[in-house]
Amino acid sequence: MNAIDLQNLDISYGDTKVVFDVNLAIPEGESFALVGESGSGKSTILRAIAGLAPDWTGSISVMGKPRSHHVDRAVSRQAQMVFQDPYGSLHPRKTIDAALSEPLAIHGIGNRGERVEAQLKAVGLDQRFRFRFPHQLSGGQRQRVAIARALMLEPKVLLLDEPTSALDVSVQAEILNLLKRLRREQGLTYLMVTHNLPVVSFLCDRLAVMRHGRIVEIADVAQLKAGQLREPYSQELLAATEGG
Amino acid sequence: MTTRDWLLADSPTSRMQANAGRAYRVFTALLRNPLSVLGGIIILVLLLTAAFAPWIAPYSPTGQNLSARLLPPSAQYWMGTDELGRDIFSRVVWGSQITLTIVALVALISAPLGLFIGAIAGYFGGWVDRMLMGFTDIFLSLPKLILALAFVAALGPGINNAIIAIAITSWPAYARIARAETLTIRNAEYISAVQLAGGGPLRIIVQHILPLCTSSMIVRVTLDMAGVILTAAGLGFLGLGAQPPLPEWGAMISRGRTFILDQWWVATMPGFAIIIVSLGFCFLGDGLRDVLDPKSEGKS
Amino acid sequence: MPPLLEVENLRVSFPTHSGRVEVVKGLSFTLGRERLGIVGESGSGKSMTGRSILKLIRKPGQVTADKLSFDGIDILAQNEKQMRAIRGARISMVMQDPKFSLNPVMTVGEQIAEALVTHQKLPRRDVQARILDMLKAVRINDPERVAKLYPHEVSGGMGQRIMIAMMLIPEPELLIADEPTSALDVSVQAQVLDIIDDLVTRKGMGLILISHDLALVSRYCDRILVMNAGRVVEECAAGQLENAQHPYTRGLLAAMPVIDENRDELPVLDRTQWAGT
C-alpha cells in the first residue's frame, strides 16, 4: 500500500497557482525528500497533504484513503506534521505536558499521563522537562517536543517541514539521529521537505527535485550520493551544495 | 524545600506547580516596580475599605443631622459634612462599594464580550469578520460618554442602567484588540498543530487563542478602569447614574458644586477619592503591561 | 604596515537576574587586509563580537577590552558622533536579512545614494554614475531599472546584493558580514559570497565573515576562529580545517552530514566537556 499517493495535484493560494500537476507515490515505510529552493512549492505540497492548504484539485490519498480538502480527524491519526521553526511551533503559555496531552484529549484517548511520559522518553527528553514552559527549553529540545507531539496519536506518516534547518549543526545531528531511530523503531513513513542535500543523503531513500511548482526529477538517494542526477537543474543544486 | 524554591523550581513536577511558578514570577517582577506597588496598595485599600465599610465609617452614610450642616473638616468629621449634615468621610467610604461594583461589573461584562467577539472575528475572517467588525465600528465611532448618556436616557437613570450603559460602550475597544491579536496568532504553527491534531475552532479559540489575548486584555482593562470610574462619576454628576441618597462619588461632587466657593470640601473630598483610585488603576495597569509583555516572557 | 584591527581581551556582558553574564569572554585577534572567518553555534558570542567592533552593543550591555583599535583609532574611546563617521565610511556591516535592513519607503537608488553622500560630498551626476557602477559590481544586470525599485519589489538574493552595494559604495576598509547569506537559497548564497569575495579582494579590504557554517567559512576565508561559549577554541588557516585539533571543532565537523553519507548515525557532541548547555 502507498502511504501517500498524489495524482494530478494542483495547489493554489488565492488566485495564484503554486504547484502544478504533481504525481507522487510513496510506499509505506519509505523516507522521501522533496528538495528545491524557496518558492518551489515543496512546503505547499506538505501543507496540502496535512490539510492546511485546502485550495487544491486532483487527488491526495493518505494510507490508501482519499482525503477531503480540510483537516479531518481520521487523517490526523494517520499523518502528522513537524514544523521548521521550533520557536513558533509550541504555544508559549502551555507546558510541555499540556502540549503533548492535547492531541489525546481531542481524540478522547485515556491514560494520558503515562503516554506523555512514554513519548518524552522515546524522543530522548528527561521527565523533568514535562512541566516546563517552552521558553525554558533550547531549540533542539523544543524540536524534540514537536516531534513527540506529532507522534502522540501514533500516526504512520510524518510530514517533516525542514525539521533541522533552524538548528545548529551539532543539534541537527542529534535530531537527525532521533528521526532515523524513530523511523526504524516505529516503521514510520517520512515525507521531508528540505533544501539540504546532505541531510537527504543521511535520512532518505528517494528524493524529488522541485522547481517553480513542478517536479523536475525523481531519483534514488544512491544516484544523489554518486552525483548522478539526470536533470541539469538537479546538478546545479548539487554543485551549489558542494561549493562548486 | 521552602515555598519559594517550590515556586521557582526549574523542573516543576505538576501542571499546577508550573502555573503557580509562572504567576509567582509575574508577581515578583511586579514588586520590582515601585509605581505598580503603589497602585496595588491603592487598589488593595479600596477593596478593604469596601469590604469593611460598616466598621470603618464612623457615621451612617445617609443619616442626616441638620444641626451639623456644612461643617469644615475637623477631628469629629474628618472630611467635613454636607448640606444635610451627613459625614462626608462615611459617604466616601461607603461610596467605595458602589465604585467597586461598577468597575467589577463593567469589567466582567465588557472584557469577555469583547474578547469573544474579537477572537471569533479574527479567527474566522471573511464575512464573519466584516459583519462583527462593522458592528463594532458603529459603537467605536461614537464618543463613550455621549453613547452612555444616550443609553441611560433610554433605559432610565439608575446605577444598574449606568453599569449596563458603560459596559455596552466599553467592549468594542476590547474586541478590536482581541481581533488584532488573534490575527497575528491564528497563523502560528502551534495553532496549525492543534488543527492537525483534529481540534475544532471552539477549542482553538478558547484554549489557545484567548489565553494569549488575556494579558494584553488585563492591562487594557486595568488602564480603562480609571475611565470607567470617571464615566460613572460623570453620569452620577449629571444625575443619570446613582440616585440620591446613594453615596456615589460623582453624584456627591454634583451636589457639592453648589457650595464649591464657600464649602470647598463637599465637592473636593469625593473628587480626591476618584483621582486616587483612578491613579491606582493606572499605575497598576502600567506595571502589569511591563510584566505581562510577551516579549519579556523569555527572560522572566 | 600596522594591522587594520587589533582586539585584545574583548569582553561583552549583559545583566540578568542572576548577575552579569559574559557572552564574550576575553577574545583577542588581529586582522590585516585579509579575510577572517568567525564560526560558532548560536550563543557562542560570534555576533556580539562583530557588533562590539562597531560599538553597536546597546545598554545595558557592556563592552570592555584591553585594546580595541581600528587603524590606530581606539574604538572604545570614540563618542557616538565620531563612531558615526567611522561606521559605513570606514567599517561597514552586512546583516542577515535584507528585509529588515532596507528602508521600505525609499527606492534602492535613493538608499545607496544616501549611503554615499552621508560620508562624502559629490556632484549629483557623479553620485548617479557611482550608484550604477556599484549595482553593476554586485552583478545586477539592469542597474537603471533596479535603482528605481522599492525594496519589496526585489527578491531576497537581489535585496542582499543591494545591501552589499550600499555597504561597499563608501569604500570602507573593513567589511563585517554577519550571516550574510543564511536567509538565502543555496544557489544564491554562493553568488552573493562570490561577489563579496571579489570586491574584497579587488579593493584590498579586510573582511570578517561571521557564520555558523564551517564549510562556507572555510571556502571564503584565509583564516578561521572557532568560537564556543564566548571563547576562541581554535584558530587555524582555512585550508587546515580538516586537521583541527580541538575536540569541539572536530565534533562540529563530524556532526555535519555529507553528500555521500554512509554513516548510520551522526556523532554527537558531548557538550558537558566544554561547559556549554
Descriptive account of the structure:
The complex is a heterotrimer of chains A (244), B (300) and C (277). Chain A is of the alpha/beta class. Chain A contains 9 helices and 10 strands. Chain A has helices spanning 42-50, 73-76, 96-106, 112-122, 139-151, 169-186, 197-203, 221-225, 232-242, and strands at 2-13, 16-27, 31-35, 56-62, 65-66, 79-82, 157-161, 189-194, 206-211, 214-220. Chain B has helices spanning 3-8, 15-31, 34-51, 53-56, 88-124, 126-140, 144-155, 159-185, 189-196, 201-237, 249-256, 265-292. In chain B, α5 (88-124) packs antiparallel against α10 (201-237). Chain B is flat. Chain C has one domain: P-loop containing nucleotide triphosphate hydrolases (Rossmann fold, 3-Layer(aba) Sandwich). A 6-stranded mixed beta sheet of chain C has the order 7-8-9-3-10-11, with helices on both faces. In chain C, strands 1, 2, 4, 5 and 6 form a 5-stranded antiparallel beta sheet that branches. In chain C, β10 (223-228) and β11 (231-237) form a beta hairpin. Chain C is of the alpha/beta class and 277 residues long. Chains A and B meet through α3 and α5 of A and α2, α9 and α10 of B.
Quick tags:
heterotrimer; B: 300 residues; mainly alpha; MetI-like fold; 12 helices; disordered C terminus; C: 277 residues; alpha/beta; Rossmann fold; 6-stranded mixed β-sheet; 5-stranded antiparallel β-sheet; 10 helices; 25% strand; globular
Per-chain topology:
The complex is a heterotrimer of chains A (244), B (300) and C (277).
Chain A: E1 2-13, E2 16-27, E3 31-35, H1 42-50, E4 56-62, E5 65-66, H2 73-76, E6 79-82, H3 96-106, H4 112-122, H5 139-151, E7 157-161, H6 169-186, E8 189-194, H7 197-203, E9 206-211, E10 214-220, H8 221-225, H9 232-242
Parallel strand pairs in A: 3-8, 3-9, 6-7, 7-8
Antiparallel strand pairs in A: 1-2, 1-4, 4-5, 9-10
Chain B: H1 3-8, H2 15-31, H3 34-51, H4 53-56, H5 88-124, H6 126-140, H7 144-155, H8 159-185, H9 189-196, H10 201-237, H11 249-256, H12 265-292
Helix pairs in contact in B: 3-5, 3-12, 5-6, 5-8, 5-10, 6-8, 7-8, 8-10, 10-11, 10-12, 11-12
Chain C: E1 5-16, E2 19-31, E3 35-40, H1 46-53, E4 62-64, E5 67-70, E6 73-74, H2 80-86, E7 91-94, H3 98-101, H4 108-117, H5 124-137, H6 143-147, H7 156-168, E8 174-178, H8 186-203, E9 206-211, H9 214-220, E10 223-228, E11 231-237, H10 247-255
Parallel strand pairs in C: 3-9, 3-10, 7-8, 8-9
Antiparallel strand pairs in C: 1-2, 1-4, 1-5, 5-6, 10-11
Helix pairs in contact in C: 4-7, 5-7, 7-8
